[in-house]
Design goal:
The protein is mostly helical. Helix content is about 60%, strand content about 10%. Strand 2 and strand 3 form a beta hairpin. The longest helix is centred in the last third of the chain and has 18 residues, at about 100-119.
Length: about 120
Amino acid sequence: MAERKENSTNSVNRKCIVESNDLSYAIDMVGGRWKLLILVNLEKKKLRFNEIRKAMSSITERMLTLQLRELEADGLISRTVYAEVPPRVEYELTEISTELIPIWKKLCAWGARHRKARA
C-alpha cells in the first residue's frame, strides 16, 4: 500500500480538506482527471495495468501508476499480485467503490445532457 508523508504540504492540505466536511472528503477520494475514469474501467472486471492503460490512451504510465497507488491507499481498488513468471498484477474495485457505480452513472448522464446543451 502506498504511504503518504504526513508532514508534506499536500498531506496537511488534504487532511484539512477531508476533515472539513463529507462532500470535500468524497471529492478528494475520487477527484481529479483520472480517478473516476479508472474506477469506471474497472466496473465490469479485473484489469491489468496495460489493459487500463489501453482503455485510457491519453493517460501517461507514470500518472496511471500514481493514481492506482492513491486509489489503493484510499481503499477504492485492490491490487492482487500473482506468483507467476512473469508476475501478473490485477486491479479491481473494492466493495466501498462499488457503491459509487450509481453515482458515476448519474454523473455520466448529467454530462451527456449538458454537453449536448452546450453544443
